[in-house]
Amino acid sequence: MTTTQALLLIGVAALATFATRVTPFLFLSRHSAHPLILHMGRYLPAIVMVVLIIVSLSAMSLPGDFPRDLPSTLARSELWRDWLMQAEGAGMLISATCVAGLHLWRRNALLSIAVGTGLYMAWVQLGPMAQA
Fold first, then answer.
1. 36 contacts: CB under 8 Å, gap ≥ 6
2. pTM for this prediction
């Protein structure tokens, strides 16, 4: 790919991104008091937060595939303890709980996402997995 092609590709991508962001404002500005727009403005941020939490947690692997021949519940509890000490265990659950709670409390998607991301990154960098 030549430099000209790369610059053309970047320009087209930037234009397409800008167009998708501007189009709703151009075509829906006259209908800002429409009940559907007001309904979407009220409930869509919370729905997006729920979808983000579900997608994040669905990527998490649970220690549910216990071998059938585990000798005791002690071995099972050790598997859960080991899982919770990993980054995708307690760190993800703590972050997701804080995102949900903070969003219900403050109704600020940017704040919720920033705090959840910060908590998860702190867990990954400073938590039990960082010591391993």
1. none
2. 0.51
End-to-end CA distance of the chain: 43
Residue whose tokens read 């920033």 = 114
Q: Characterise 10 by phi-psi region: left (phi > 0), alpha (psi -120 to 50), beta (else).
A: alpha
Query: What's the rounded Cα separation, in Å, for the pair 92 and 82?
Result: 14
Taking the CA atoms of 36, 102, 21 and 57 in sequence, report the sign of the dihedral they define.
Answer: negative
Tens-digit pLDDT profile for residues 17-42 = 999 989 988 887 787 788 888 888 88
Contact 119, 95 (CB under 8 A): yes
CA separation, residue 24 to residues 28, 45, 93 (Å): 6, 16, 35
Rounded to whole angstroms, how far apart are CA atoms 114 and 49?
Answer: 12
Residue extents of the structural domains in the chain:
1-32, 33-131
Tokens, residue 7? 């610059």
Q: Supply 59's token pair.
A: 């990527």
